[in-house]
Amino acid sequence: MAASFFHLPRSHHNMVTLVLVCGWIAAKPRTVDKYAAVHQALGYETLTLLATPFEFFTPEASVHTKSFEAFKAWRQRFPADEPLHIVPHIFSNGGARTWYCFENHLVRAGMPFHVPGMIIDSALTKPYDHKTGPAAFAASVKNPVLRQLLTGLLILVFFVLKWVLIACGQGSPIELHFQRFIERDTAIPKLFLYSTADKMIPASQVEYAIETAQALQTPVTAVNFEDSMHVAHLTKHPERYAQSVETFLAKVAPQTKRPAAH
């Protein structure tokens, strides 16, 4: 999937801070760009990555390889000794998969980077439960009979996939995301943006991630928009959403300006 960058003039930089906007599965570029624009208005460069369902069935080393090449070219715009800060803004399970794989690319390439904070929108699906992931994928189907049939089929597919991945020395993506973002990255502050009205990833599942992170002493900020649907909080509550993001970023990754070159 192609990468979409937003660049600031070179003189505006003091450190390299990039917001990695990791869209949900099958999201339209124009829709995800509206979220990227929130960060751009605050003075951050952004890289937008889009997700497909196939990435859950693709070896992680093969996910977003072209996007990573574009990212490396972007990084060369800056001196190598300038610290690279990346703030992932992940949407749903698709965005979680994107950041998981992209971070692996960074590590394999030996590129130093720091994650000062994470923004998690409409996620994470509760792990260690074979029903939650399939239910989330099938939630958009309006016909209740078809939804149940699809959920049952996906439970079987996910169950088989899990054991195939284990046999290949890998794990279930849903569980890997939770293990890394919540259980491993405890020192990284997190902003959770979710809603009680979300039918795809219910608030109870997001709150499970929040409570687990808090129990592990992670600095957590959580905003429940209450009546907005899955990945639709900005559309329903634009001012509150933008303010929540701005307040969080001001704490974890304040954007400073470099004097213009003479």
Automatic annotation (TrEMBL):
Keywords: Membrane, Nucleus, Signal, Transmembrane, Transmembrane helix. It is found in: Nucleus outer membrane. InterPro entries: AB_hydrolase_fold (IPR029058), DUF829_TMEM53 (IPR008547). It is a single-pass membrane protein. Residues 1-27 form the signal peptide. It holds the Pfam family DUF829. GO terms for cellular component: nuclear outer membrane. SUPFAM superfamilies: alpha/beta-Hydrolases. Belongs to the TMEM53 family. This is Aste57867_17286 protein.
